[in-house]
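stage 2 :: seqdesign
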């Protein structure tokens, strides 16, 4: 008879043995990873990445394209999540991106937001750009002022001859081939770089990706994730003949490059020779640089280090990516590599789309955070701003006004595709600013003004995307390529109206500008009339003048817009129109002398007077608006003073007019009317403005101070 405790011990031992057996069957791949860890520097120490099979239920990991039910341990070497430590916290990580055009520049911003959100290391971005993208991104990063981020630009146009001989059917054109030439373009002392497509979104710290360089063997120079479709297997359709590749090949949306080794290996000669050989039998590349990278790797397989598939989860049309992950935490980088982008079909596309939209609409101002423990010099201009802000007193009643003046707003120039106007000696750009609540004015404005426009919009990141959809949905707006939209991102409690105006003014490309407001509609004939007037009056080097466009207003939301001066005068006499702000602030337009304008046949000169704020046409290099005036009040008046101080003639045009349409009051105008503190702060800004005028213009500025003191 067995002792009483023996059956219990045998039962426990049997249960333990059963658990060990189940663990071996389920996680046998981990043992393989351990064997590979002992296999040398080119091997991956890892735990197998779990993936989701077709029915959506978690099962054992399986290699792409294999049966997850029968292949318990099989996997390719890109299916592992590495367990290596991150690089040192303050190590500078280098990232290269090729970017061209307006739309791709917006994609870069979303990509960079996702990188900055998760990053803990300083970053150096190496941007290969065309002229358009450089103009956009250089201004954006300069005004973004993100600590511990450096940006270098490289001229894509100079690189075109190196790749223009390669026929490419991919929608990216020549720019899609430029990653091939990066080893010769980037600084010769740069040894490692992460190369990214513009359509990827991070879901993890980029330092984890950088850490994978530690797993390269001495021969390996390129780190890539396996292509997650059957494209290179050549079986997607009849007569499909892809470029040569190892198995499924590799995707080049995320690349780790050992630049030092590539240069030593003669990379330029290697890829050019391979491309030339393949083009004898293939008419063109279908996937741009990816085809050539794969052809090189096919002939030199020792060059490649396969990366874990979660570092490039590819959402292409025939993707197998859903076998690469099991949980959200597994995913590191999402790659929208289908031409359909967010419209691609995928079982989990809603999750991916929401992740992308989070960063698309994320407030970029929140990413201006310092990296604690990593001292770095402040971005250019940031130290001066910080010192000025430190001198402000929060107990000052006008603290908000002074703080808003010093705020540096992120600026995204030409947010939408824009075609610069042809060079014409007397051409005029309409310049204005607006916020989200004035978008409805844009279509009518485009119908009234057929010429170029430079419009600055004061928006949040989320509102910028709503604006984009608004334009895309409008047949009138989407047809106009000569309207440049510049986004100034919202920050602070007061509307920085003159800062926003200055952005629009600085981006005008014609010799003359019509300084308007978004709630005015110009006469249908005004654009042609202004150009003819500029020529007839011989403005420019011979005559320094500001052409005054008389302003009117209607109290009616619906009215018949006059097609001529005669029709306008009839509406004025009938009480359907008034001179602008006639009932509220007649001093603002009184010097225009509307009684004289009624009878005028030729332009006439008027004199400056206190509080005059006409709408004028001036040369593009005119004085900028004074940025100290934020919110409501005196923002245009101060600009007219500056024009007069610089001896601009004020010439009223007899056939010109513009009409203000009614709308709800702005928040700042409501605050002005209800707050005595607002009035006091505006008066303080006026006093400071006149003090600066006196310092700049001396005795000539006395007339402005005298006029201001008159009742």
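stage 2 :: out
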């Amino acid at each position: 008879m067995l002792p009483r405790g023996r059956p219990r011990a045998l039962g426990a031992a049997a249960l333990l043995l059963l658990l060990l057996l189940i663990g071996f069957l389920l996680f046998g791949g981990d043992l393989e990873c351990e064997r590979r860890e002992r296999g040398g520097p080119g091997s991956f120490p890892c735990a197998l990445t779990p993936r989701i099979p077709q029915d959506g239920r978690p099962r054992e990991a399986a290699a792409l394209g294999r049966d997850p039910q029968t292949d318990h341990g099989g996997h390719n070497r890109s299916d592992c999540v590495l367990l290596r430590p991150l690089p040192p916290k303050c190590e500078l990580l280098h990232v290269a991106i090729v970017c061209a055009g307006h739309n791709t520049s917006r994609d870069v911003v979303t990509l960079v937001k996702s990188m900055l959100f998760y990053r803990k290391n300083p970053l150096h971005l190496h941007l290969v750009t065309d002229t358009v993208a450089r103009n956009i991104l250089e201004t954006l990063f300069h005004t973004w002022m993100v600590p511990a981020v450096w940006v270098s630009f490289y001229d894509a146009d100079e690189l075109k001859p190196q790749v223009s001989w390669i026929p490419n059917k991919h929608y990216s054109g020549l720019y899609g081939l430029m990653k091939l030439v990066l080893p010769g373009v980037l600084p010769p002392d740069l040894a490692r770089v992460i190369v990214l497509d513009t359509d990827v979104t991070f879901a993890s710290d980029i330092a984890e990706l950088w850490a994978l360089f530690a797993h390269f063997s001495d021969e390996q120079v390129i780190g890539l994730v396996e292509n997650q479709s059957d494209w290179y297997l050549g079986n997607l359709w009849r007569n499909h003949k892809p470029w040569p590749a190892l198995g499924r090949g590799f995707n080049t949306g995320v690349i780790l490059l050992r630049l030092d080794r590539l240069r030593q290996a003669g990379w330029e000669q290697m890829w050019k020779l391979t491309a030339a050989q393949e083009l004898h039998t293939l008419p063109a590349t279908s996937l741009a640089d990816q085809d050539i990278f794969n052809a090189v790797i096919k002939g030199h397989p020792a060059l490649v280090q396969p990366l874990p598939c979660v570092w490039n989860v590819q959402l292409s049309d025939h993707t197998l990516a859903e076998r690469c992950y099991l949980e959200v935490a597994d995913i590191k980088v999402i790659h929208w590599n289908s031409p359909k982008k967010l419209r691609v079909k995928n079982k989990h596309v809603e999750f991916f789309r929401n992740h992308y939209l989070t960063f698309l609409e994320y407030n970029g101002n929140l990413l201006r955070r310092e990296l604690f423990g990593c001292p770095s010099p402040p971005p250019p201009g940031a130290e001066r701003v910080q010192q000025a802000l430190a001198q402000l007193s929060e107990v000052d009643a006008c603290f908000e006004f002074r703080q808003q003046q010093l705020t540096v707003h992120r600026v995204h120039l030409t947010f939408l595709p824009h075609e610069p106007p042809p060079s014409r000696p007397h051409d005029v750009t309409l310049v204005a600013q607006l916020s989200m609540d004035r978008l409805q004015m844009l279509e009518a404005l485009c119908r009234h003004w057929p010429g170029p426009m430079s419009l600055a919009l004061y928006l949040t990141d989320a509102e910028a995307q709503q604006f984009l959809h608004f334009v895309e949905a409008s047949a009138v707006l989407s047809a106009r390529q000569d309207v440049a939209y510049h986004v100034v991102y919202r920050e602070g409690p007061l509307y920085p109206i003159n800062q926003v105006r200055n952005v629009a003014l600085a981006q005008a490309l014609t010799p003359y500008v019509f300084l308007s407001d978004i709630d005015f509609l110009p006469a249908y004939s005004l654009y042609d009339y202004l150009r003819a007037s500029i020529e007839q009056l011989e403005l420019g080097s011979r005559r320094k003048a500001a052409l005054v466009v008389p302003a009117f207003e209607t109290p009616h939301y619906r009215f018949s817009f006059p097609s001529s001066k005669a029709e306008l005068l009839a509406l004025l006499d009938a009480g359907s129109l008034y001179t602008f702000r006639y009932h509220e602030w007649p001093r603002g337009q009184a010097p225009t002398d509307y009684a004289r304008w009624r009878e005028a046949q030729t332009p006439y000169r008027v004199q400056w007077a206190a509080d005059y704020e006409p709408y004028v046409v001036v040369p593009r290099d005119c004085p900028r608006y004074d940025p100290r005036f934020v919110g409501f009040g005196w923002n245009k008046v101060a600009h007219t003073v500056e024009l007069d101080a610089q001896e601009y003639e004020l010439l009223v045009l007899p056939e010109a007019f513009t009409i203000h349409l009614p709308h709800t009051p702005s928040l700042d105008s409501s605050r002005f009317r209800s707050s005595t503190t607002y009035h006091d702060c505006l008066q303080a800004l006026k006093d400071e403005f006149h003090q600066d005028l006196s310092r700049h213009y001396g005795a000539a500025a006395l007339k402005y101070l005298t006029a201001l003191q008159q009742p």
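stage 3 :: structure notes
- The two ends are 119 Å apart (CA to CA).
- The longest strand covers residues 250-258.
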